Amidase family protein (Streptosporangium amethystogenes subsp. fukuiense), 517 residues
Amino acid sequence: MSIPAFTPADLTAVAGRWGLDPGLVDRLGPAIDRMRDTYGRVRELAAEGRPPEPPPIAVTRVPRGPEDPYGAWLYRIDDPGRTGNGPLAGRTVTVKESIAVRGVPMTLGSRLMVGFVPGSDSAVVGRVRDAGGIIVGTSVCEDLCYSGSSFTSAHGPVGNPWDPRRSAGGSSSGAAVLVATGQADYGIGTDHGGSVRNPAAWCGVFGLKPTYGIVEYDGAMPTERTLDHIGVLTRSAADLVAFLEATAAPHPGGEHGSYAGRYAREITGLRAGILAEGFGWPGRSDPRLDDQVRESARALERLGLTVSEVSVPLHRYGRDIHLPISIEGGLTTVFESRLQGNNHFGPYHPNFGETFGEAVARRPEDIPVGGVLALVGATLLRDATHGKVMAYAQQLRVRLREQVDRALREVDLLVLPSVPMPPHPLPADPREAVIGTDLPFEMHDNNCVFNLTGHPALSVPCGFVDGLPVGMLLVGRPGADARLARVAAEFEERVFRCPPPPRHTPDAGLPTARSGR
């Protein structure tokens, strides 16, 4: 695609946007034309030596119905890809549709990306294949990942496997449901503020947000690069270590040895700290859920841990600190740089960015209402404050991380609720729910803190409230992911093992509302 010549009207518009002298901008026209020519040469250079397209794979869209009563599948695929004898040999894996799988449409839960098909695997999918994992399909996610619930996807709502009338959590909603119902051994998701741990808690499975950066994010939709994590969902805590062995790099400050070796270490004598600020959120916490998590935390003593209470005062303000960083970072990363971000060493994905940018320019009505809220809010607030409040939030983020690190010098892991409340009913009108309620974001209080700090955080099923699963969040020092998995596995073995959810039929009450647009 050639870049069209810029007209005098284009130059005048840019001058107006930035408050510049129109006469000066007009005189700069020839210099800008030279810049445009350079852009053209870069495009031509990039086209030279491009590798040939790989052969197509068999992809099947999964309809709602007997095969998928919860609306969790997007595509099934028949593509064994590379075969290996690694730690994931023979295990089935689904991939959130915001993570690239070669030859499979990658829609990000949105109408904006319909028709985009990545030509290569994301880094995490490539490593899973190399480790012998079998990619069996992709799972539904929230529209552009702008929700922690499961009702905004352009493909329709995703029902909870324990009660399809309720949210499965999000934005990695389909991944959690497919794992909970035994349709896959692993569900790979992304986690920007709790998007793996929210659905893990509400669906009764394990959900790990690893230490920041140890699982490469290349090939997944970015929202704000310092918050973005690849995460994983499993039915068994013991399965987490194989995923780490296959996909994760060692953390520079973490424990020594392989993840399997770290997992095998004794946990007797570890110190668990019940995080006081993680409980009793005014207007949001269900006291029965708080009590269940406290009781489960005390049960860690049966595993040989000591249990005390600790405090991280800024934890109570984590969601406040998260907001300016996430929305202003998202404005830059998602909208202004077309899902590429700037000022980093990459990798970059030109076709991905071009598809998204053209869709936003030509079909802004397809931006989900949650995306519109973030786009407009971030634009107004950044312009009103010139980024100063976001900078304050980044300073507070450093203090928050220091407080968490200080607490983790007193104890070896923190314990708190993954989500303050049980899953809410799916709304009849998703658009109005985004506009007029806090349903997409009410569950983020505890989880988003550890996207800010980068500490590993693992949601562990620990009981039920009104027949709906409760998640207990374990948080460790950077690099202590395997230790969390071992504690969770011992808890699963000796304290509480979540049973499988009941079977439901397609007419079990899943709302028919299609999107939160």
About this structure: The chain has two domains: 8-47, 58-494. The first helix runs from residue 8 to 18. DSSP finds 16 helices and 14 strands in the chain.
